[in-house]
Design a protein that fits this description.
The structure is a homodimer. Chain A is an alpha/beta fold and about 475 residues long. In chain A, about 40% of the residues lie in helices and about 15% in strands. Chain A is built from 14 helices and 17 strands. The first copy, chain A, has helices at about 15-35, 40-55, 55-65, 70-95, 145-150, 165-180, 195-200, 215-225, 245-265, 285-290, 300-315, 345-350, 370-380, 395-405, and strands at about 100-105, 115-125, 125-130, 155-160, 185-190, 205-210, 235, 245, 280, 320-325, 340-345, 360-365, 385-390, 410-415, 455-460, 480, 485. In chain A, the strands form three sheets. A seven-stranded mixed beta sheet of chain A has the order 10-11-12-9-8-13-14, sandwiched between helices. A five-stranded mixed beta sheet of chain A has the order 15-2-1-16-17, with no helix packed on it. In chain A, helix 2 (about 40-55) runs antiparallel to helix 5, helix 3 runs antiparallel to helix 6 (about 165-180) and helix 13 (about 370-380) packs parallel to helix 14 (about 395-405). Chain A starts with 14 loop residues before the first helix and ends with a strand. Chains A and B meet through helix 4, strand 1, strand 2, helix 8 and helix 14 of A and helix 4, strand 1, strand 2, helix 8 and helix 14 of B. Strand 15 of chain A pairs parallel with strand 14 of chain B.
Chain lengths: ~475, ~475
């Protein structure tokens, strides 16, 4: 979105005053927070999860008012959010979030005598998190980036999303309460577009995490790169999450494909960064005929509704793209779900069509006439969060060939599944080549996300007692010792 | 350095023609190279090491002519370079270079049923490596970045350093021969400042690795960030590698400190990125008196000699900084080693003094009068590759307090050791906060360096036979399975 609502003035004064106070407190908390051990950080994450769960009714009520999302979805999302914090707490206690390596001194090391060298990670320092509109819990104030940064030992400054200001403030109050045992300044909330941009440029901020539009995200990325001291910018800036339906899939699983697509592209009114927005199909007319009735609820904000209509208008103004199906609006002012249709020739003449994200309940079917066209379109893809193949059987030759090719353009590859619904686990990867992520080696979901806020440090010849605890000779936990993994 | 020698025209035509051909071949090789398995890549690295070792006499001879570095140092450096390739080959075979994670489907996963999800890494694609002048083997054509990128499965384009053009071309020929079994285009060499900058902007290049000056590196970093599709830029841009000598160290280990410093700051004529350039000492006069006679050989290039004199002149023009000791030049035109001296008050009034790298045989002693001054100077540090404490005993309270504080500003912290001489191992970390590295989560030395050229991909619900081999159910090798490390 291009504009925020004006930030309110609260007890701490103007938004600018608040920003000054939050940044100072955040910087002051960095060292004491870095000095906490994994058990202490785990306790903080558990406290956050417990506090949010204890206030679930209140939070879901505010969220429903502000976002128009249905209550069951909000309860599921809050459960996911607190689960995420608890999973990171578990992994901290298991010693799984740091890649500990120990190389003992070795006079016979082939390149010459090796000193004792031990590697762990340290937190980067204050992290600025830009909350997203579409997941008011999971990608907002107490969302994945906040939990990951705290697990890493970094103070967090969240720039609230103006789509749910009351929820943001109430969540922040609850975080403050849950973090009462942590160093003052461990968490802070700021509001306002200008304050966010100012914070990106502030030397006390050491990393930025952002989920949102390409336009807003790229602007902030550019600010982060242009600093006297550039900092890591973890931006998730857009994805159309291409799906390929093979001819064999269409022969064997037409109903499953049609039902799955209808559910997936309208889930959350299409306001998922993993919404399948482009679907390569062998027979568009048949798929359209097979689609069940689609419906969609209100969008999160008027700005998103306007953006959806504008993106749709842009797409339908493109020669060769037409509206194939328009669902029923559930209510006045609520966008109807839309299925667009084009063909491979149109797309191959202008492959940018594959990248035009239409954030809301719309998807574009692209009919292909040959396997060659499928391969050519896949080769033309840029970076995406996900790419999906709908296969016939496990012997589907086209589907098998596509798996490694889709992996060239996406952070997650799915087989006979749908990309919406992102589980939180150790093997999850939510990222991908630009613009899916500005940092394609990192993920914003799952336990590997913590690495975004850590930096390795090697300790050479340091006496055991002066080492960080996890590096000491008798420390428990998994580590790589002299090239051998120790579980 | 600010200028390259004009690139020569060779059989492939002008440097611009060569660039065009190299980039096209590199892009064409990306997919077949990505499809190779770890054993195949290990064989390529072993072939490179074997070929370079077999031509050691010839290569060292050329290197000595072009760089003026002494033969024993060059032989050691070449041995390190081939060791590095072989160590990566070993680790590839052990499955240690990819963080494999497997989460089996779990209907009872607390946030909701979990699909089968498996995570591995894929290569980024063609990597552009800017060779450094100061390590004509270890950080040049066949150096660490080249070996790491090949281990990751990425084609490599090296922009040769003009300080050793014949060595660069001959090394490239030997790489071509060693890589005869690899896809055509797996390796390519380009020359010329303009060609390098053009390649950074080329969409076929997917990552850049650079070791050199802050000025040249920042310019290229800015180009990489400004691309339509920004790419990771791994730049090592400078470090003064601060050393703190505690009062207790000076009381107990004065001779060892003086001897160690004299050796370390003049090693390789001070042309090491880990040269100790700033030394905080309790008694500068006593240290100067205790220093053994220091000498230094010729520098690598006339440009570096000029740069050294200019940086020295800058420092000595700063009020409060004086030349305390000037060694004997070994030859006409060879810079004499220089020890500069100032005090903590001068530095605390202008902490930028701590960051002014003087690439060559010089070091700056900063005399402090109190522990408070030490802490204040350490707090004022920016980012460095290394930071060292020279301690008295293992009970030295100041030294113990400094270890975690120095870790806030450096990628490697040393205790009673010297930063020059960077071992290649699993626990090594050669990086640090900006400007030591533009990507402080990554290293340019050691086996963890391979991660710079990899990107994770998760596979959801993909049949076993369609998975990358390392993700299959019965694949050998270390992995994290359902949250439990399997060695």
């Amino acid at each position: 979105m291009s504009t925020d609502a004006p930030a309110t003035t609260d007890a701490a004064g103007t938004p600018a005053d608040r920003l000054t106070a939050v940044l100072a407190a955040s910087a002051a908390s960095a060292r004491p927070l870095a000095a906490t051990g994994p058990d202490e950080r785990a306790a903080l994450l558990d406290a956050i999860a417990g506090t949010l769960d204890a206030h679930a009714d209140e939070l879901v009520h505010i969220a429903r008012d502000e976002t128009h999302l249905p209550e069951p979805r909000l309860r599921t999302e809050l459960r996911r959010t607190t689960f995420q914090a608890r999973l990171l707490a578990d992994r901290l206690r298991q010693g799984l979030l740091t890649d500990v390596r120990v190389d003992h001194a070795d006079p016979d090391w082939p390149m010459g005598p090796r000193p004792d060298l031990r590697r762990t990670t340290v937190p980067l320092g204050p992290v600025l998190v830009f909350a997203a509109s579409n997941f008011p819990f999971a990608f907002s104030v107490a969302g994945g980036d906040t939990a990951s940064a705290l697990a890493a030992g970094c103070p967090v400054v969240v720039k609230a999303h103006p789509g749910h200001p009351r929820l943001s403030r109430r969540t922040a109050e609850l975080l403050d309460a849950a973090l009462s045992g942590a160093p003052a300044g461990t968490f802070g909330l700021i509001e306002g577009v200008e304050q966010g941009a100012t914070a990106v440029r502030d030397p006390r901020i050491r990393a930025v995490a952002f989920t949102g539009s390409l336009r807003a995200g790229r602007r902030l990325f550019d600010l982060a790169c242009a600093r006297d001291e550039p900092i890591p910018f973890y931006g998730e800036l857009g994805s159309t999450n291409p799906v390929v339906v093979t001819p064999d899939a269409w022969r064997r699983r037409a109903a499953a494909v049609a039902d799955g697509l209808a559910t997936s592209f309208t889930l959350g009114s299409g306001q998922f960064c993993t919404k399948p927005g482009v679907v390569l199909v062998p027979d568009a007319a048949a798929l359209i005929a097979a689609l069940p009735a689609v419906t969609s609820g209100p969008m999160l904000t008027p700005e998103l509704t306007d953006g959806f209509h504008a993106a749709l208008a842009d797409l339908t103004a493109t020669p060769g793209i037409e509206v194939a199906l328009r669902g029923e609006p559930t209510d006045a002012g609520v966008p109807a779900p839309v299925v667009l249709r084009t063909d491979a020739a149109t797309v191959l003449a202008d492959p940018d069509i594959l990248e035009r994200e239409c954030f809301g309940p719309a998807t574009l079917l692209v009919e292909y006439a040959s396997t060659t066209e499928v391969h050519d379109m896949v080769a033309a893809l840029r970076g995406h969060l996900t790419a999906t193949v709908q296969a016939g059987s496990d012997d589907d030759a086209l589907a098998l060939a596509l798996v490694p090719l889709l992996a060239e353009h996406a952070g997650r590859v799915l087989w006979n599944d749908w990309p919406t619904g992102v589980t939180v686990s150790d093997a999850q990867h939510h990222g991908g080549p630009y613009p899916a992520s500005t940092a394609p080696a990192t993920t914003s979901v799952g336990t590997a996300a913590v690495a975004r806020f850590l930096r390795p440090v090697a300790f050479q010849n340091v006496p055991d007692g002066a080492l960080p605890p996890e590096l000491r000779e008798r420390a428990p936990g998994p580590r790589l010792v002299d090239g051998r993994p120790q579980p």
